[in-house]
Structures are given as structure tokens and as C-alpha cells.
Amino acid sequence: MLKGRVFKFGDGISTDHIIPGRFAHLRSNLPELAKHVLEDADPAFAAKVKPGDFIATGSNFGLGSSREHAPLIIKMAGVSAILAKSVARIFFRNAINLGLPVLICDTDRIKDGDELEVDLAAGTVKDITNGNQFTFAKIPEVMLHILDDGGLIPYIKKRGGFRL
Amino acid sequence: MGKTLAEKILSQKSGSEAKSGSIVIAKVDLVFVQDTTGPLMVRQFQASGFEHLANPQKTILFIDHAAPSPNYELSGDHVLLRNFAQQTGSIISDVGEGVCHQIVAESWAKPGDVIIGADSHTVTAGALGAFATGMGSTDVAIALALGETWLRVPESIKIVVSGNFPDGVYAKDLILHLIGQIGADGATYKALEFGGDTVDSMSMPQRLTIANMVVEAGAKAGLFAADKTTQDYLASQGRGNHYQSIFPDADASYEQTIKINVANLEPVVAKPHTVDNTAPVREVKGTKIQQVVIGTCTNGNLEDLAVTANILKGKKRHPETRLIVAPASRQTMLNAIQAGYIQTLIEAEAVILPPGCGPCLGLHQGVLADGESCLSTSNRNFKGRMGSAKAFIYLGSPATAAATALTGEITDPREVI
Fold first, then answer.
1. What percent of chain A is modeled with pLDDT above 90?
2. Phi/psi of residue B182, each to 5°?
3. Is A97 on the interface with B (CB under 8 A)?
4. For residues B81 and A32, is the Cβ–Cβ distance under 8 A?
5. Mutate which of B41, B382, B392, B395 to disrupt the A interface (most A C-beta within 10 Å)?
């Protein structure tokens, strides 16, 4: 069971909002890079976020670049899961490969600052602040196994290759 | 039931019946990274415990996004990539050779290939009938170790294009128009498959421009049949033996069909800060522009430089508008020099950059200040993309860009051609 506070963002948060190209020189210095996470969407986010917190967002989260540094520094910030109405394809795959859950559900009724409980196994989200309860869309089985193993590297180490 | 292009290629490469919606493990023919995604790929490869690449001579490390390096941190990343290439026997495409997607088209992609790149615009090679898609560094690290990856076979949307392009209207206007119509997530997880009379007669550079931008509608791949144009292009690159024809089956099943008649199109721009925020150029006519950029993996090929040079010949840029041109590859630059385009552009007071990604991603070579506006032929106008988060980026065709450079404000190219 995951438990934490929500940071709410709107639709179309791109990988440039999450970590723009002007910080590309910090990509081999992840602690420094992580200080700029989501800076162009909310300059105070990096200072406010605490381990276990959630990001809730509208449609097409993570559109744009294939830069895996985007989900990587969100994970480094301690975010335990991203809840979105929809997510861009490459970002989705990258997040799961790093063991960061991305859950597709209706986020309209989730407000900034709400306290949530997420049960990954049961597929449910409970908004403790207002009592609302949601289910999230089923994740394809291969991605579920990658997530269960803690990401693609541990998955491959354990299984030796892709298993469908 | 017949197969779409996506189903056809993925069936062949997975050795299974790849129907849309199913998940397959497919052999990959080419794997690549670039200098902003490569270092993380190297670290993930090392963390995975693998030592050897499945196919080192089909693994390429491109140094193009920050080439030559603008700072010592990125120089260190470049050293890491060069060392990895030497240790694994893979190929390095170093400073000055050009943008990965242009070089993949010129020298590597073949019809029927599965191509995986740690760059979202890997989709560009779909112009040659390859199933090419972008992934992150970890996926690519595993793909280059195993020689295969898992893929969900996408549903396909058929785009049927008819009519003749009016003067001043190009493939770039068509793809911007389409993205504006279906939206930035209109094709998420899906393949866009292009066909119709206009596509049949479209040059390879125009097809590359269209395939390049399908990811801006969320698509996983943008596919063109491999036809006579593909055959001629490969032959012109000395790769005629790499050709095989690939067409979708006549009875293939598409999720949706969208018809576009380009005879009705006019020049289009994407306004700040999303690619689907499109409008006819005339609607933003007169917007002051401080920097014009012509080049990138979208519009940095010889045809684009020809269009630009024809508009700028014998003229000069507006004194308050910087004009930056980056040919997409060394081959493009050499051909542009031989054709006289580069001299024309320099006489028009353009700055010519070395082949590479140029200022597209805000790293160097033309970073925007607070409040500045740029008209670029690239593929993204997200907030903060080219420098300041308080700058404004408009996307358009090379003709619109060249016309804008002349007047200093967004200009419909039909007014100057």
C-alpha cells in the first residue's frame, strides 16, 4: 500500500517541463539534475516534494523526448506513483522500466494536496481527503512483471530475457 | 484478413502472427543512441551485467545533439561514448557527421527493418518502410545486448493524401495540419500509415519530414510503403541492394482512415507552446521574430536547403532577425556547397552551423532569451525547449522560415515566392 500527498499538474506536461535540454550537461550528475525536476511546470516542486508523494496529472503526461532522465529524477524525488488520465508511450515504458508505477485513471476529482492511498495489487486509489475511490486501468502483463521485479534491469537479470 | 505495414514487418521480425493489440518479441536490425541518452544507456548496460553486444556493427552511438561539445560535462559524456564504442566494437558517428535520423536514412535503414533508437524521432526511418520507434536508455541497453525487444503491435490509422501541393505549401505544412487535426495524443500507441496518390509521388526527403513528426501526435511509428521512390533513394545512396518492396495488404484493417486533399492546404505554423496548436500562417502574420532556425532532423536535408536558398537568393535577412542554418548531415552540407546554396545563404547573412541538431533543444548554438520569439523548422515548440521558458517558438516549413527571415516577422511564403 502506497500512501502520500498529491501534487497536481494539468494536461500536456512534456519532458521539457520535467527536465529541459538546457540541463543536458547535468545528465551524468543525477543529484544536481534532480534539483531541477519539473522546474518549468512548478519551480517550487523539488523543494516541496517528499518521499512517498504522488503526482496526479491530466492527459498525455510525459510527451516529447525519450529522455529517461525525466522519470528517473521524478523517482529520485521520492514520488511513489504517477496518476494520469493518459501518458505518452515512451515515458510510460521508461517509468515502468525504472520501477516507477504510472496508473491510468480519472484524475479530475483529485485535488492538489489531497492524501491518497494506492493499492497496486488491488488496482485501487482511495482519496482519503474526500473519500472518493477509483480503479486504474490494467497494465499489460509484461510491464506488470517488470514493475514487480523492480524495473527492467532486475527483470532481465532474474529471467535472462523477455518472457511473454 | 490482410496486414497493415506495422503487422507485416512485426510478423516477419517476430516469427509470429503479429495482429494489432498483441505483444511480440521482435528481432531488431539496428539500435542507436545519441549523446544525451547514450551515457545513461552505457550505465544501464553495465548495470545489467552484459558484456557483449548482440550485433556491434549494427549498434551506433551518435554524437549530434551537442556537437562540438559546448561544455566540459558534455565532453565527458562524449568520451564515455567513444570508449564504449571502442570496448564493444560498435560504431561511433562523431562530431560533424550529422543528425542521427538523417544518417540512419542515408546509410542504414532498410525496408522491413525494426529499428530502436534512444531518441523519440527515431520514427523518421519509417519513411523507408522500416518499423522504427523511440525508446529510453534502459530499453535500448537491453535491446543492444539481446538483439531483440518486446513490442505491442500498434493499431494503424491510415492517412490517405490526395491532390497537388499548391505553391508555397510543403510536406511540413501537411504534417502540422494533421497533428493540429488529431491532437498531440491523437495517435498515442498507434501507427500512422501514409498512402494515396500524393504520397506515391512524394520525394524521400518529404516523406522523412512527415515520418519525423508522427511522434508529435503520440504515434509509435509513421510508415510509408517501400516503393520505386524508396528503391531510387537507396540506389542514390549506393544501397540499391538493400531494397525490398513492402506494401500493406489491400484488405488490411485500420482503426480509422483520414483523408486529406493537399490542394486545399495553405502554409501552417504551430504556435507556442504545443505542436498541435496550429494555425494558418496568415493568422499570425506580422508577429516579430528575433531568430529563424532552418535545419534539424525535420527539415535539414538538401531539398529544404534548396527551397530556402531559392527564396533568399540575392536578398538579405532582416537586420533584427538572426538566421541560423544547420545542414542535417555532412553529405547534405557538401551537396549544398556544390549546389551553391551555402554561398547564397551566407550572402543572405545566415550563420551556417556544423551538421547536427543545432539549437533545437536549447543546448547551444542559438539559445533563446526571455521574451524572444523564434520561427523554427524543427519539430517541438514546448515551453523551455530552446532555452528560456519565457521564450516563444513557432514551427513552420523552410519556406515560411526563409520568408520570415527576410521580413523579420512571420510571413506567408507565397508573398515572397
1. 96
2. -95, -15
3. yes
4. no
5. B382
CATH number of the structural domain spanning residue B139? 3.30.499.10
Burial of B251 (0-12, 13-18, 19+ CB in 10 A): exposed
| pLDDT greater than 90 at residue A63 | yes
Indicate whether A164 pLDDT > 90: no
Cβ neighbours, 10 Å, residue A135: 13
pLDDT digits (tens, 9 = 90+) for A147-157: 999 999 999 99
What is the average per-residue pLDDT within B341-362? 98
Taking CA–CA distances from B24, the nearest residue in chain A reads A164
Average pLDDT over residues A124-136: 95
Contact criterion met (CB < 8 Å) for B74 and A25 = yes
ipTM above 0.95, yes or no: yes
Work out how many domains chain A is built from and give that number. Answer: 1
Burial A39-70 (b: 16+ CB within 10 A, else e): bbbbeebeeebeeebbbbbbbbbbbbbbbbbb
| Residue in the block written with cell 559524456 | B77
Residue B243 grid coordinates = 531494397
Domain co-membership, B220 together with B332: no
**Quick one: B131 and B170 in the same domain?**
no
Quote the percentage of chain B above a pLDDT of 90.
100
| Cross-chain CB nearest to B185 (options A22, A86, A140) | A86
Number of CB pairs, chain A paired with chain B, less than 8 A apart: 140
Q: Look up the CATH number of the domain holding residue A52.
A: 3.20.19.10
Domain range for B192: 154-265
* Within-domain flag for B260: yes
Task: In whole angstroms, give the CA distance from residue B204 to residue B287.
Answer: 32
User: Is the entire prediction scored with pTM above 0.95?
Assistant: yes
Q: What are the C-alpha distances in Å from B230 to residues A5, A38, B244, B396?
A: 53, 42, 9, 26
CB B257, CB B160: distance < 8 Å: yes
pLDDT over 90 at B1, yes or no = no
Query: What is the mean predicted confidence (pLDDT) over B144-162?
Result: 98
Both B192 and B66 in one domain: the answer is no
Average model confidence (pLDDT) across chain B: 98
Residues of B in contact with A66 (CB under 8 A): 37, 117-120, 122, 134-136
Establish whether the linkage from the previous residue to A17 is cis, with ω within 30° of 0.
no
The beta strands (E) that lie in B347-388 are given as 351-352, 373-376
- Render pLDDT for A82-110 as a digit per residue (tens, 0 to 9): 999 999 999 999 999 999 999 999 999 99
Indicate the residue among B214, B243, B265 that finishes a domain: B265
Return the CA Rg of chain A: 15
Minimal CA separation from A121 to chain B, in Å: 22
- Choose among B23, B37, B361: nearest Cβ to A66: B37
Q: Based on the structure, what is the number of domains in chain B?
A: 3
Nearest CA in chain B to A68: B136
Question: Is A22 in contact with B66 (Cβ distance < 8 A)?
Answer: no
Strand-pairing partners, residue B276, are: none
Instruction: Please write the tens of the pLDDT for every residue from B28-58.
Output: 999 999 999 999 999 999 999 999 999 999 9
